[in-house]
Write a structure and sequence with these properties.
With 273 residues, the chain is mostly beta strands. The chain folds into two domains: 2-57, no CATH class; 69-272, Fumarylacetoacetate hydrolase, domain 2. It has five helices and 18 strands. Belongs to the FAH family.
């Protein structure tokens, strides 16, 4: 199943067409409410034929208003190395505030400072839960989507110790999309390739099998402390290749375009001003 939103309403998406969920079922239009009934949603979606799909529209974020947005620092060994750190023994969890979440095709106003890119595979929580065992963690995930953990490094690294959340939560700094794809759609849900281009330059690439803490492990560890709610997002970490670790450092500039792609999902595109 591939799902997204059009005008904030949950839709199934196939072959460039969409099907408004609430208009064709007794499921709600609100993504959070529909994801809370994920088993019903998945069963209903499986019965839909492509002939049912006709709507077109501009896709927004698969979850426009998540209640919790978690993110993971240094979850790929090459990125930890380029940042000058040893790989962590425990996941380093921070938050992006939900007001930064945006859709897949956006124009982002750059704040002053050192704005940087970080491509990430983002897990969208479905039924959720508290203290979810790792053996049940994938069942709590509704889908995976493409994300950018855009970061203004000056604010992020200000202070001792540094705090991350504000520097990663400027307007538009959490674009996701274009759709979320259920884990069963991937040949191997633990081995998904992704890449990020800034203009014509490939700046990042990797595979999710290179994570230090895989997605199911993150779900189990986070839910051991915080109940995961339908529609919550987990930005699962970025590989090597971010701008502030280049020599010399390289930051986003007005007029540039960033394109982020994940196998089996699609791409998002941000233009900066």
């Amino acid at each position: 199943m591939r799902f997204g939103t059009i005008d904030g309403r949950l839709a199934l998406v196939r072959d460039g067409l969409a099907l408004d969920v609430a208009a064709h079922s007794d499921l709600p239009a609100d993504p959070l409410a529909a994801l809370a009934r994920f088993d019903e949603l998945a069963a209903w979606a499986a019965s839909r034929d492509i002939s049912d799909f006709s709507a077109k529209g501009v896709l927004g974020p698969p979850v426009p208003n998540p209640r919790q947005v978690f993110a993971v620092a240094l979850n790929y060994r090459p990125h930890a190395a380029e940042a000058g750190f040893q790989p962590p023994d425990e996941p380093l969890i921070f938050t992006k505030f939900p007001s930064c979440i945006a859709g897949p095709i956006t124009e982002v106003t750059l704040p002053p400072g050192k704005p940087d890119w970080e491509i990430e595979v983002v897990a969208v929580i479905g039924r959720g839960g508290f203290r979810i065992g790792r053996d049940r963690a994938w069942a709590a995930v509704a889908g995976l989507t493409v994300g950018q953990d855009l970061s203004e490094r000056g604010v992020q690294l200000r202070g001792a110790p540094a705090q991350f959340s504000l520097g990663k939560s400027f307007p538009g700094f959490g674009p996701i999309g274009p759709v979320a794809v259920t884990p069963d759609e991937f040949p191997d849900r633990d081995d998904i390739g992704f890449e990020c281009h800034l203009g014509d330059e490939l700046v990042q690439h990797g595979r999710t099998n290179q994570m230090i803490f895989p997605i199911d492990d993150l779900v189990a560890r986070i839910s051991a402390v915080c109940p995961l709610l339908p529609g919550d997002l987990i930005f699962t970490g970025t590989p090597a290749g971010v701008g502030n670790r280049r020599n010399p450092p390289r930051y986003l500039q007005p007029g540039e375009t960033l394109v982020s792609r994940v196998e089996g999902i699609g791409e998002i595109r941000q233009t900066f001003r």
